[in-house]
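re: ur question from earlier - yeah i can do the single chain one, its not a big deal. heres the input i used so u can compare w yours
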Amino acid sequence: MKLILATQNKGKVKEIKSIFNGSKFEIISLYDLGNNIKIEETGTTFKENAIIKAETIYEYYKEPTIADDSGIEIEQLGGRPGVYSAIYAGENCTDEENNAKVINELKNFPEPHKAKYVCVAVFYDGRNLIETKGELHGRVIKEPRGTEGFGYDPIFIPDGYEKTVAEISLEEKNRISHRAQAFSKLLKELEKLF
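and the output i got, formated as tokens:
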């Protein structure tokens, strides 16, 4: 069964395809379809934005769609960047610019800088709407480390680890990450449904 993945993020595509590998679901990304639909993420929660993405792409293709919205919430910043994680340093900013802004905003706070990655994943097929959630708790550091992953991975160390998410393998990340948790739960729900 084909599922369209409503994202333009190549890092997410790689992670989610890896999670669904070996299942009866084939993940088709917007890249695979050669599509560059700009989805306005107007929600104020991860759940609202994930649903907006899934419904928008479903309406376009009329095919079962999965989507997620995710980000990092930092305790000392009152939960910021939250739903604005991807554009925290401004529209069309880079991961490095987002990381630099967070590091700068934390400079006057004492360590540890407790944080969590949050992901809400959804499935939508015009009738069924399924939602799952994952969280990865840890802390933000002031010096980026590692070259794997994307987003805030170079400055995020999960609880129980000494390495940043950017210093661990994709296989390890897919065992522990917020996105892996959310999409593994979603996969289980889809296997029950189909």
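The two ends are 9 Å apart (CA to CA). not sure if urs matches, ping me
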